[in-house]
Amino acid sequence: MTGENITRHLVSWPFLLYMLVEIIIFCLLLYFYKEKNANYIVIILLLVALLGSMTVVTVKAVAGMIVVSIRGNLQLNYPIFYIMLVCMIATAVFQATFLAQASQLYDSSQIASIGYILSTTVAITAGATFYLDFTGEDVLHICMFALGCLIAFLGVFLITRNRKKSVPFEPYISMDAMPGMQNMHDKGIAVQPDLKASFSYGALENNDNMPEIYTPATLPIVQEQHGSRGVSAPPYRVLEHSKKE
User: For the chain, how far is it from start to end, CA to CA, in angstroms?
Assistant: First the structure.
């Protein structure tokens, strides 16, 4: 795959017609997505698929020219190599941007199934138009290829259809999950712990049966006589107490 062959395919009328249709569709989808706030998953993933089709074309061209250069026929002096390289990087970056926006709006299982179907279909169409992949193939091989694509699409759909959605972590305790708690919305009753339950949220566990560790300190008042005038005795004295074992 030389630079001359890639340039000849790039200016061929089938690919130019395909590029014209793709640019029109891409601009329309981008207008509805940005201006009309049409955040539908099909629109976002169609934008990704159209960009992906150009990524497939450019990656194959760049890789082919590098392989030919390694074999001895240098292709890096053709400007088409650098044009394809820039298009490959730009389309890959914009694909990642749209995919990140889609992942914030929709579940990953939907993005995987719909995105795989749309991207594969558009990429096959772009490759067949640019590189003429199906030229010279008989009808049987084309039909078998289409059947294989349909089976792959069906398999992806069945795998992602029954995937359970992940439950987000809730950093609080639900009122319904607390044993012995009344519903605060029933007839305006305030939330109070049920003392009949073994344990209530927000209340201390009953420890009446546990032995006391410490005894309270007492300060008994002691009446004392004044020994002499002008000398006052303290109105009380502290009695020493010890811990109970």
Answer: 94
CA 77 to chain centre: 42
Q: Two tokens at 201?
A: 């949220």
Tokens of 46: 């169609």
User: pTM here?
Assistant: 0.63
Q: Write the CA distances from 61 to 1, 3, 96, 109, integer angstroms.
A: 7, 8, 21, 32
Angle between helices 108-130 and 79-105 (to 10 degrees): 160
pLDDT digits (tens, 9 = 90+) for 23-73: 999 999 999 998 888 889 999 999 999 999 999 999 999 999 999 989 888
- Amino acid sitting at position 121: T
Q: Which two tokens stand for residue 111?
A: 């993005």
Question: Which residues lie below 8 Å from residue 197, measured CB to CB, with a gap of 6+?
Answer: 179, 180
